[in-house]
Design a protein that fits this description.
This protein is of the alpha+beta class. It is built from seven helices and 21 strands. The longest helix is centred in the C-terminal third of the chain and has 15 residues.
């Protein structure tokens, strides 16, 4: 199989929006109600021919259990110092400033049609120039890039006011708002465009914003934890907020299967990484809301096996102590036992078997549901149903590797009429679902 083509574009205009013009007869940008009416941006520059290496990383930090800013590193061949900000005769002189937009995507062919797949949309934070020196045969520039989390982390909530100082709430963040409404109110305060968001309404209602100095990103992540949902940046540069109901329903979707068995209709991988340790064990969990009573639940059998392993979630904005207890029980049920984990699987795009597999692998994203299988020595095998929790691309002219970081679903709600999520009873424990809150 021919490798996909890596494409990189810089937009030297300011602002957070990644908008694309409406182009008639174009399958990607010719869609009414999706494309943006207007001409192509005057400062859009394609630098794909200069790219020597590219690495992208997006997703959740397993240790901190939170989504982090996505990052990208793009190394350019720059023999004429076009990307040296000090080169007054360069074509981009005066435009090479921090936080210019960058889009990284792949082009691949499926059934004769050229398809674009977004991989990363973010902002250039630095231009690191490497000059001719010693054994090096060319000058290079390394573009260090980060996604929209950087912008949200740079905006502070209102400062305390008065004498003595009193916390000032974020405007529009009133009591009894659904979590998604609260996220949008905070993004409005930050001036983040509504066209660059996908926000679920939410299942939990929030208390009024408590105020206090923090970043906008931190304020949203408090809502994310309160909802037991997910907030992260998409590949196209949009913010994505999933409530817990959405996360639970994604776990009921039809997964694709990655295996080393060569089964027809499945996807091959080049490497799989296992872990069996105490890293994820929690057997005493405390959840506390602002103004509430801490709710602590524990599992004695787990404590007897693994000693006490505590976890806390505090300063949540939910309305009742009962919801705090529900969260604690959900975490305890998912984390009280030690289990063999599949941490990641690696895909070698040079070994992709067909065009459709190439497209699906390139499109792999956070919260895609997959099954990973591994044949073990002695005739046994391991099979796990997993969420993708992070995606890493490492690309050179001759290679393209994708690493999918994975975790088992934390919330698996009981869903009526579902063959996967609608099973009650305990005759087959590994296939039995629990009633989630």
């Amino acid at each position: 199989m021919t490798l996909p083509v890596l494409k990189v574009q810089i937009d030297f205009t300011s602002g957070p929006s990644f908008s694309y013009p409406l182009i008639l007869d174009n399958p990607a940008f010719g869609m009414l109600d999706v494309g943006v009416l207007g001409d192509a941006p005057a400062d859009l520059v394609d630098i794909s021919d200069q790219v020597m290496r590219c690495s992208i990383r997006r997703g959740r930090n397993r240790i901190l259990a939170s989504f982090e800013a996505g990052t990208a590193t793009v190394t350019l061949n720059d023999p004429d110092s076009d990307f040296n900000p000090q080169n007054a005769s360069g074509p981009y002189f005066g435009k090479l400033i921090p936080l210019r937009k960058i889009r990284i995507y792949a082009e691949t062919v499926v059934g004769g049609d050229l398809i674009e797949v977004n991989l990363f949309s973010g902002y250039i934070t630095s231009y690191d120039t490497g000059f001719y020196s010693g054994v090096y045969t060319t000058s290079t520039v390394v573009l260090q890039c980060v996604d929209g989390f950087r912008l949200l982390n740079n905006v502070s909530t209102p400062a305390d006011a008065g004498t003595p100082p009193v916390p000032v709430p974020i405007p529009g963040c009133n009591a009894v708002q659904l979590s998604g409404v609260r996220v949008n109110a905070i993004l409005n305060f930050a001036g983040f465009p509504s066209s660059m968001r996908t926000t679920n309404f939410g299942k939990s209602t929030m208390q009024a914003d408590p105020g206090g100095a923090r970043s906008v990103l931190a304020a949203i992540q408090t809502v994310e934890q309160s909802e037991f949902g997910a907030f992260f940046m998409g590949r196209s540069g949009k913010t994505l907020f999933f409530d817990r109901d959405t996360v639970a329903k994604i776990a009921d979707e039809t997964p694709r299967t990655y295996t080393d068995l060569g089964t027809i209709g499945t996807f091959p991988y080049s490497n799989i990484d296992f872990a069996f340790d105490d890293q994820n064990i929690l057997n005493r969990v405390t959840v506390e809301r602002v103004g509430g009573v801490a709710q602590t639940v524990e599992d004695q059998d787990s404590i007897d096996k693994f000693f006490v392993k505590s976890g806390q979630r505090t300063n949540l904005l939910i309305q009742t102590d009962q919801e705090s207890e529900d969260q604690a029980n959900t975490l305890l049920a998912a984390r009280k036992d030690a289990d063999l984990r599949i941490e990641s699987i690696t895909l070698n795009m040079n070994a992709t078997v067909n065009e459709l597999n190439t497209l699906v692998n390139l499109s792999s994203d956070i919260y895609n549901l997959i099954i990973a299988q591994k044949q073990m020595s002695g005739g046994s095998s391991i099979e796990k149903e997993l969420f993708i929790q992070g995606v890493q691309h490492d690309v050179t002219p001759d290679s393209w590797n994708i690493k999918l970081f994975t975790a088992e679903p934390l919330i698996q709600a009981f869903i009526l009429d579902s063959t996967n999520q609608g099973i009650l009873g305990n005759t087959v424990p590994q296939n039995t679902n629990v009633l989630s809150y």
